[in-house]
Structure formats: structure tokens, C-alpha cells
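Supplementary material to the annual report.
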Amino acid sequence: MNPQLNFIFSRRSIRKFTQREIPEILLTDLLEAAMAAPSAVAKDPWHFIVLRNRASLDQLATILPNGKMLSGAAAALVVCGDLNQAHDQELSFLLQDLSAAVENILLAANALGLGACWLGIHPREERIAAVAQQFSLPENILPMAGIALGWPAQESPARTRYNPDCVHLEGW
Amino acid sequence: MNPQLNFIFSRRSIRKFTQREIPEILLTDLLEAAMAAPSAVAKDPWHFIVLRNRASLDQLATILPNGKMLSGAAAALVVCGDLNQAHDQELSFLLQDLSAAVENILLAANALGLGACWLGIHPREERIAAVAQQFSLPENILPMAGIALGWPAQESPARTRYNPDCVHLEGW
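Predicted assembly:
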């Protein structure tokens, strides 16, 4: 693994956090990183809900099956998309744009010493409905993913899951 | 913009390249970075076609409307997904997984001094069909995006497209 790319290899899903708060400036850093992602035809169809309120985090933890750690997280982001604003109103482009933004947030969090974990919402209908209700989302706003955030209370080594079977030279 | 996150802010879409070749080791670096992305339930449903052959690059340039620069690119990656291998065979998860991998490639390329540009394939049916034919893709393999690669012949300043209207505190 090229050490120049350690900012990628050292990003791991972090599910255990200390009780320490996250300064607001770092959350802004994460949002600046998110909105530096490319988006199809630069439509930037994303929206971000910032959660620091304990009751909100606890409620989201009950909605997302793999999101129990939100109860111990200092903050969370819910990454949403506006289908009306996406390139040609295509769900595929929306998901691609939002996912690039999520990956930027995860890598930025890691670079700042924070831990983060991507929590799936879309395409699970029951999660979408519950999240939309919790945050009073307008009808055109689709929640795609949650991101748990906090100072890591676990260490995971840098790695890649590189698999040569997934690499095809010049064609299949 | 926090300078610790410059590896994100300095990534810009690069569409003009020099004639210089890309050493194979750097392409491997990009693939290691790609496969360090998170994927839903760690299904890693991705496949990557590596293009260095001039005729292949030229042919792909004719297929992708925004991919004319492939004719001047030293290499390209075509990022594909196996719907059968995706979590619950859900297209949404597949697109999210592949997009995180694409963003890793773009950031890794930038960190290595390369230029890169994300070229949309999915959900455009005519592009999917033409790419599947060019590379003899099996029926379950869906091409999502191309990535043009080369040494940059243009400079673009670091930036974010941060928009405070896209940030919502605790709810909509």
C-alpha cells in the first residue's frame, strides 16, 4: 500500500466512541469536504442534517438497525438528496452524487482524527419513512445514509481489500 | 478550508492531459485505493476494467458523450458492479458501493499527481449497452462510470462548493 494514500487505507468503520464532544468547526470541515465532491453536471443535489442533540441521536439509533452506536456518538450526519435537483431527476445520479459526498466525509473525519461509520438508509423503505418522519423531510427529499461520528475508542489497522479477481485488463 | 483536508479540496475534474504514460504501479495504487472503500455488508461487488490500449480508449471516447478527452488520456478505468453480489442484490447499494470506490480513485489519483475525470455511464441505457458490448461484459455486470486518467495539463485551484442552504441543524 502506497503510504501517500494512507489517508484512504487508514479509514476504517469506527463503531465505538469516547464521550468527548466534537467542536462545531470540525463538523463544518466535514460539510465543506462533503460539498467538494463531484456531482453529475454539478447539480449538487445534496442536503445534510447535522445531529448533536442526544435525544435526536438516540431516536435515530432506534430507526437504523445497524446504528445502535449512535447512542454513544457525539454527532451524526444524515445525508439526503433532492431528486428534483439531481441531473435529469435520475435516482441513479442522485445516489452516486451523495455517495461521493459520504466518502469524502468519512475520509475527512479520519484525517481529522475522528471516527465515522456509514449507516445505510436507502433503499430500505421502512428506514426512509421513519427518517423522513423524524426530521420532517419534504416529499422530494430522500434520506440515503446516516454517518455516526465521534472520537474513536477503537483502533483498526490500515488496509485495502484489493482483490485481483476484480481487475480486468482491457476487457472482461 | 482546513488545510488538513486539502487532499479533498484540491481534487478537481481534469480533462486535459499530457502525453506522458502512467506507470503500472500507480494504476495498482488506484485499484488498492478503490477497494479500500466501504461497501454495504462488505460485499465488495465491484469490478474494474483497466484501459491503456489506445484503440480501446479511443473507442470508449466515441461511446461516452462527455468522454472525448479519453482520446488524450493515458489510461482509463471502467467501474462496474455485479448486481448478484451486491447486498440483497439491491441496485441502490451497488451504486453506493461503486461510487465510494470511484471517489477513492479520484482522490488517490489527485494525491499521486494524476488528473482524473468521472464520466457517467449508468443509468444511460445506450451507454451501458455500448460499454457492455465493447468489453464483452457478462449479463450480471453493470458498468456505472468511466474514469479518464493522465498527467494533468491544466491547473485548477482547490475549492469547496459548500452551500449553507444545504445544511440543516437537527431537522429540516
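The longest helix of chain B spans residues 91-111.
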